[in-house]
Specification:
Layout (H helix, E strand, L loop, with lengths): L1 E7 L7 H12 L3 E7 L5 H10 L2 E6 L4 H7 L2 E2 L1 H6 L4 E5 L2 E5 L2 H11 L8 E5 L3 H12 L4 E5 L3 H11 L4 E2 L9 E4 L21 E4 L7 H9 L4 E3 L2 H16 L6 H11 L1
Parallel strand pairs: 1-2, 1-3, 4-6, 7-8, 7-10, 8-9, 10-11, 11-12
Antiparallel strand pairs: 3-5, 5-6
């Protein structure tokens, strides 16, 4: 039986084991999948231990996505573009890094009939989560992406590295169609300190999901967001793509969506 895991810190809230095990049951693919708490700076040791135990692949979440990028000995085009990795595969001494976050986000937005062509976006964060989604968003034809980060210089460096004229730092008074929270603030039940008026009339989307996303989404609602979504659908969709990377078949996500949303209701 093939063995998989998700590495991150904190990790106890992760629904990835539920999702992958359900995909396996639906497709008749036996597997095990566990959570492993791995603080920043410890990924290489954790990966080597997991490989020694027979691990075949792992997902990587906050705060390890850029660390996983540096660790991988082979990278897909998606990972190279993002310079962040959320999916690792282990075979014949090779650590292969991929990034399924952007595809997962776009699939969830499509599921909710959110139009991206011509949209103006505010992306909060400039770390591994934000890096994983920006390329697919630009490919989807967005009109502009404003990047806010607590450390503005980090956002500026990232914008320069991507090199797309549609990306810029915030300008006072800008309005947005979609506001994406790709920071780790929600994991601490906090809201990024952006001006409240950025939410007015927008879709507010938190890449986090479940109870930790509620403070951000409630704040967005209070300050005029037209609609709000958490990242559960993105998690499910990116997991389906990772499952395909490992097993060669992409599961249908509708059953898992109904199952997990029903539990969260």
């Amino acid at each position: 039986m093939n063995h998989y895991a998700v590495f991150g810190y904190p990790i106890q809230h992760s629904l990835s084991p539920r999702i992958h095990e359900q995909f396996g049951r639906e497709l008749g693919i036996p597997l095990t999948y566990e959570r492993r708490a791995v603080p920043a700076g410890s990924l290489a040791q954790a990966v080597q231990a997991f490989i020694a135990e027979g691990g075949r692949g792992a997902n990587v979440t906050v705060p390890l996505k850029t660390e996983a990028y540096a660790l991988a000995t082979e990278l897909t085009l998606r990972a190279r573009r993002a310079q962040a990795v959320n999916t690792l595969s282990f075979e014949d001494g090779v650590i292969r890094g991929d990034n399924t976050d952007g595809e997962g986000l776009l699939a969830d937005l499509a599921y909710h009939a959110v139009a991206l062509s011509g949209a103006r976006l505010l992306v909060m964060g400039a770390g591994g989560a934000a890096q994983g989604i920006i390329g697919p968003l630009l490919d989807a034809g967005v009109a502009h992406v404003t990047v806010w980060n607590r450390t503005a210089s980090r956002a500026a460096e990232w914008i320069a590295r991507v090199g797309d004229a549609r990306m810029s730092l915030p300008v006072a008074g800008d309005s947005y169609d979609i506001v994406l929270n790709a920071t780790a603030a929600s994991l601490g039940h906090a809201v990024p300190p952006v001006p409240d008026d950025v939410f007015r009339g927008a879709l507010a989307y938190d890449l986090a999901y479940g109870p930790v996303a509620r403070p951000f989404l409630a704040h967005a609602r209070t300050h005029g967001a037209q609609s709000v979504l958490d990242g559960l659908g993105m998690l499910i969709e990116q997991a389906a793509t990772a499952f395909c990377v490992w097993h060669g078949v992409r599961p249908d996500t509708s059953g898992v969506r109904v199952l997990l949303r029903g539990e969260a209701a």
